Amino acid sequence: MTKQERAARTRQALIRSAAAVFERHGYAQARLVLISSGAGVSTGALHFHFENKAAVAQAVVEEASRGLHDLSAAIRRRTDNAVQALVDTSHALVERLRDDPVSRAGFRLSCDGENAGVPDLRLEWHHRVRQLLDEAALAGTLADGVSRADAAAATVAVTTGFEALGRDDSAWLSPHMLTGFWQLLLPRLVAAETLALMDPAGTGAVAPGRGTALTVLIGGTAEAAVERAGTD
Questions:
Q1: What's the rounded Cα separation, in Å, for the pair 73 and 89?
Q2: What is the rounded CA–CA span in Å between residue 211 and residue 226?
Q3: 142 beta partners
Q4: For the residues 64-69, what does the mean pLDDT come to?
């Protein structure tokens, strides 16, 4: 392993340790000695990579920001339906908030107002939501009369609300919770011919061809939807 590779690994270990410490103690009570010891290095090694605690916090938020950008871009590449990409990205985001300490700590540090100058992850998420809705509008998949601004506001409010509530109760970050939101919103958001093709559970959350039968939301019964799914 080269010196550069060792340095990169140490930096990543420090970021992950810092995320855990910030999440456990909060920014104000976090201590650099806890961060360095959690990464298995000395405080001197920490200061080689980061000037102070604020710099460590910024690195955590930037890592979370990169993760959000990368997962959103990867999801968008695999579908030509911008609204489904939005649904899928929201599920991927909530999964990260549930399972990834860097994403959780990044959102908290970004949104709690304790650190000036760090990226605003809620604002970044809002921009991405609005971008996907604009793409959907250009493709003609949104329902007539839908306000993209209102749809973006509702999506961001719910997903970031789940993030805040999930700090004390992880059930808020379950796929079931987010699927329920999309089941409510999608019939108002997309055109009828698009709605039947949508999966509010996220296409990455179910086996191919086994998406939730949204036709039950635009006609028919739940029993009929179950019978159709059973014949797939």
A1: 9
A2: 11
A3: 190
A4: 94
Average pLDDT over residues 145-168: 95
Q: Residue for token digits 């995320």?
A: 19
Q: What is the pLDDT of residue 115?
A: 63
Q: Could you tell me the pTM of the whole model?
A: 0.82
CA distances from 17 to 79, 82, 93, 97, 232 (A): 35, 36, 21, 16, 46
Buried b (16+ CB within 10 A) or exposed e, 106-118: bbbbbbeeebeeb
Task: Identify the pLDDT of residue 8.
Answer: 93
Please give the Cα distance from 38 to 17 (Å, whole number).
5
Can you tell me the distance from the alpha carbon of 133 to that of 123, in angstroms, rounded to the nearest whole number?
15
Residue 78 amino acid letter: R
> Are 141 and 194 contacting, i.e. CB atoms less than 8 angstroms apart?
yes
Gap between the Cα atoms of 123 and 139, Å rounded: 24
Residue tagged 């010891």 (tokens): 37
Closest-CA residue to 120 (of 168, 56, 74, 58): 58
Token duo for residue 118: 């760090």
Amino acid at site 205? A
- Residue 72, pLDDT above cutoff 70: yes
Owner of token pair 């300490």: 101
One-letter amino acid of 53: K
Taken in order 87, 92, 113, 172, the sign of the CA dihedral is: positive
Question: Is residue 61 a contact partner of residue 133, using CB atoms and an 8 Å limit?
Answer: no
